[in-house]
Structure formats: structure tokens, C-alpha cells
Design brief:
By secondary structure, the chain is mostly beta strands. It has one helix and ten strands; from the N terminus they run βββαβββββββ. Belongs to the Gfa family. This is CENP-V/GFA domain-containing protein.
């Protein structure tokens, strides 16, 4: 079972089935919505997604037919939904468990942040240095 939640814990979810490949989206709306260089996402079939605390969600139609859902208390992005689809677009920053799926690609690099280069290799640290 894959689980996740918002920062304040008022919203939790479980995924009972698998999820699609992970992609890192660099489109302008994802960057602005998440305040980051990109948003890591994967599709989850509606029938496999169970949400608790739905009354704590707020939403915003960020482009025609696409609505983003987030916690109205802490602002954590949980998922997006396009009209007439049978899956959600899960925001992977909200995961609490390992989905055991690997990233497949970066998308919308034509809109990437000027200060971010996905090919750049930077040093890594276990904690803040």
C-alpha cells in the first residue's frame, strides 16, 4: 500500500494499485504552483486512490479542464485532475511511503527555469551543509 499526506496531516491518502512512471514536469504552471524548478508526478487510476480529509481540500483550475487540489491549511499540493479522465496526477512530494517506481523523464524542458540544468551534477549531502 502506498500512502501519503499533506504537511499538516489533515489530508491523507492510500493507493491500492500501481502508479504510472514518474516524470518531472518543468512547465511554468507546475513551477509556480510548487515554488520549485519542477514538479514530480505520476498517474494513479481513480479506482486505486482513496483520500481522507477531502473536506480540507481547496482547488484551482490552473488551465482549462485541469484542476489542482491542495490542502487549504498548509498548502501541500496533493493531486491534479483533468476533465474526462479516469486517473489523477499525483504530486509525489506528498508521498509518505516508497512507490517503488523510478523516474522516466523530464518534460516541458522548453519552459524550464533558467537557473536549473537537469544535466548538472552537483555535490550531495545527507543534511544541510
Amino acid at each position: 500500500m502506498i500512502t501519503g499526506s499533506c504537511l499538516c496531516g489533515k489530508i491523507t491518502y492510500e493507493i491500492s494499485g500501481g502508479m504510472g512512471d514518474i516524470v518531472h514536469c518543468h512547465c511554468q504552471t507546475c513551477r509556480k504552483a510548487h515554488g520549485a524548478a519542477f514538479s514530480s508526478v505520476a498517474s494513479v487510476q481513480d479506482q486505486h486512490f482513496r483520500l481522507s480529509g477531502a473536506d480540507q481540500l481547496s482547488f484551482f483550475e490552473s488551465s482549462p479542464g485541469k484542476t489542482r487540489y491542495f490542502c487549504k491549511h498548509c498548502g501541500t499540493q496533493i493531486y491534479a485532475k483533468r476533465e474526462n479522465t479516469e486517473h489523477i496526477i499525483l504530486r509525489l512530494g506528498s508521498l509518505d511511503s516508497n512507490p517503488e517506481v523510478q523516474a522516466r523523464s523530464h518534460i516541458w524542458l522548453s519552459q524550464k527555469a533558467a537557473w536549473y540544468d537537469p544535466a548538472e551534477r552537483l555535490p550531495g549531502y545527507d543534511e544541510f551543509e
